[in-house]
Amino acid sequence: MLILMIILALFWVVALFDAYIGLRRIPRLETLASKPSNEKISVIMAAKNEENAIEKSITSLMKQTYPNLELIIVNDRSTDDTGLIANRYATYENVKVHHVETLPDDWLGKNHALYQGYTIATGDYLIFTDADIEYKPNMIEKTFSLLLQEKASHVTVAPDLEAKGMLLKGFIAYFLFGFGFFKRPWTANNDTSRKGGMGVGAFQLLSKEVYELVGTHKAMANRPDDDLYLGQQVKQNGHKQRLVTGLKHLKVEWYPTLRNAIKGLEKNTFAGLHYSWLFALFAITGTLISQVLPFLVFFVFEGITKWISLLVIVLIYALHSLTTKKLTTYSLPIVILFPLQALLFTFTISRAVLLTYYQGGITWRGTFYPLSSLKKQKHL
Prior knowledge:
Blueprint (H helix, E strand, L loop, with lengths): L1 H23 L16 E7 L6 H9 L6 E8 L5 H6 L7 E6 L8 H11 L5 E6 L3 E2 L3 H11 L4 E9 L3 H18 L20 E4 H6 L12 H11 L4 E13 L4 H7 L1 H7 L4 H24 L2 H25 L10 H22 L1 E4 L2 E4 H4 L6
Parallel strand pairs: 1-2, 1-4, 2-3, 6-8
Antiparallel strand pairs: 4-7, 5-8, 6-7, 9-10
Helix pairs in contact: 1-12, 6-12, 6-13, 10-13, 11-12, 11-13
């Protein structure tokens, strides 16, 4: 057990150092300057059954200070009043509303909706976004200024993930912690390598030319993680991208409750593991060994093993605090719940994998997508 604790200590030292350097390379949008520009940007919003959120999102986009915006609202087979709300804005000169009635085979609804928006977009630049996002008025102006100043082809923004209650905030913070050291999102800002890359579904700004060069959403038609994949494709094809945090400019309630969060991750957890039982087993056992076991060892063992396990725990808390402070607006005391968060996330992974396998696919926004179809997509 002592050897295992030493190995874990070394692992977390490396992970902490990597994150410390990487997170410092992610700028905050509020610190960046804006410069006037007038290139046409098409904002493409996919919406399905968003009657409770879409009007607030549209209103925030209509208040943008950027002077040359085209807003394309794609109503994706909604069964509530989403389409009716969208139609109220169709009379505006810079707004287009498109209604999707049927979903072709081998497409996920959101991906198809975003692609349909692209087909009627007239801007040289595109923004892909969701229908539950709220924008500060200068959000697009600042991100487009960044894209031009950095001579980048793609800018993606991490939003403020609003949440109610300590348990839900802790769950989201833990997700970001795990995602951070697993996917290393800061690689988006490393111009010396084509590895990695990042895309956040809340906000992706890129040139239409680059979007077409990476294959549009046709190249990721059946991927639940289309946002991440799009960013990675931009990076791997040699185009410059930037990831910034927009905690004061962009916000979304990711999930209203912890139950919704656990259920919501059904759709992309197995996809993130490449639909592989081996990867799933590795993720579950790896989480338990690297993040839960040190706490048990600390309370059960004595001597040097106990103190090395304490070092591991301190390193974990340091990394968790670093990630939480950079990527959220949550108060740091939520990291105290780390062991519970790790166990809960292990349950979430196990549940998602078993349900996907048992059901033969995933259900997302009321549509069932068979596993055989999902597996057709290329994995990174």
